[in-house]
Amino acid sequence: MTEEVNPKAYPLADPNLTQKILDLVQKAASCKELRKGANEATKTLNRGISEFIVMAADAEPLEILLHLPLLCEDKNVPYVFIRSKQALGRACGVSRPVISCSVTVNEGSNLRPQIQTIQLAIEKLLI
């Protein structure tokens, strides 16, 4: 896991935060509060239902994801990169690599406190 990460993949979560994000993604997937894939993530942003966006820094080419940070900044949605699309896929509950996903808004969600913790952690990375 020591290969160079594309410098455009910013902000990149450290292993500790990555683990927390993957745990939350897994919970969100089981609560149906997750959209997988760059296209779905884009849709959640456009519809204003995204809590935060997770992207894989090892997506090839990374450019297929780079419209997302711009959109996130427009919509004021936190976003973060993690190193592995394989790990993101597993957390999303699929056997394939997933290059990005969006945790979505759900009013009665019991994931709310965890989502807010992650959002704060992501915002700290951007400072």
TrEMBL record:
Residues 20-110 form the Ribosomal protein eL8/eL30/eS12/Gadd45 domain. GO terms for molecular function: RNA binding. It holds the Pfam family Ribosomal_L7Ae. It is found in: Nucleus, Nucleolus. PROSITE patterns: RIBOSOMAL_L7AE. The keyword Ribonucleoprotein applies. One of its GO terms (cellular component) is spliceosomal complex. One of its GO terms (biological process) is ribosome biogenesis. Keywords: mRNA processing, mRNA splicing, Nucleus, Ribonucleoprotein, RNA-binding, Spliceosome. InterPro entries: eL8/uL1-like, H/ACA_rnp_Nhp2-like, Ribosomal_eL30-like_sf, Ribosomal_eL8-like_CS, Ribosomal_eL8/eL30/eS12/Gad45, Ribosomal_eL8/Nhp2. Belongs to the eukaryotic ribosomal protein eL8 family. Common component of the spliceosome and rRNA processing machinery. This is Putative NHP2-like protein 1. It comes from Mytilus trossulus (Blue mussel).
